[in-house]
Structures are given as structure tokens and as C-alpha cells.
Fold:
Amino acid sequence: MQPADVTARMIACAKAAEALRNGLSSHRHKSEKKISLVRSPPSCVTVSNTMASNTHDPAELGELEREVLSIIWRSGSITAERVREELDRPLKDSTVRTVLRRLEEKGYLAHSVEDRTFIYRPAESRQKVAGRAVKRIVDWFCDGSVEALLVGMVDSKVLDRAELQRLAARIAEAQKQAGKPSREADK
Structure:
């Protein structure tokens, strides 16, 4: 489909929706032929609903955005109404939908439409978003050194020796599965 065709179809969808909101059964623009909304509504499609790559800084997410993302990561896919029900605070439906739309614009969510209901799903895994957030911390505070980050976590008693050993084992296993030699094997 050519961009002009997509634009024309989107304009027709918008006009049809406006006519329906105004209670009209048909709509005509001065130079257009009559469109019957009852018999053959124009097909409306979502052209794109996610960003190609997410470069948004997770540190800039607000508390409500993080809470909504957590709900969606737990659920896998969910409607705006279910998100509103699962939030710990009473919010208007329009507020929840605005947060969902903004998270989608930032590249964290995607949606599909089932029976005119938006079904939201994560566009990225929790681990990928966390990885981007940690990379930002490493870049900001540790001059890009993951080792400096881990040493700081041990010094601050965030990680203990046993947790570091478990992490080393998981990294070695992941590298083995990916066919990459681990640094331990190089020694």
C-alpha cells in the first residue's frame, strides 16, 4: 500500500468516526462521493504502533508509568480497563489510557485491537529495559566499567560473594550456550 493510499484511508476513517459521533448515517465532503457508513464502513487499520528501536531512558519513567509497566510485564497482555483495576490507586479511565499511549509512544508497549478493544503487551522484556537502565548507571557513575559497578554493589552489600558466584556460573553457562568462551576459560 502506498503512503498516499494509507493517508487517504486514515482520512476516510477519521471522517467516518466523526460522522458516527455526530449521529449521521452517511457523510459527504464537497468533492467526494457519498460514503455509506452503515453498509460499508471504510476499513481502518493501525499503520504502526511501536517505535523501531527504543532509545528512551528508563530512568525518566514516572512512578505511574513504572507501575503500569510492571502490571503489563506480569500479565503479558492486558486491556486498559484491567490495568486500571490492578493499579493501587483510583484513576480515571482517560488517565490510564493516556499513560498507556505515552508508554507506547516511548517504545515500551505495543497494542493490537480485538473487537474494538486495545490489548496492550510489552514491546520489550523487563530484562532488556533493566539492562538499558543499568547501562546508563554504568556509563554515568562507573565510566562504563561493569566491574566497577559490581565492586560497588559488593562494597555496599547489595551483592554478597555467593550471589556473585551464582552470577558467574550463569554468565559462563550463557556464554557456553552462545558458543563464546568465558573469561574464566581464558585464564
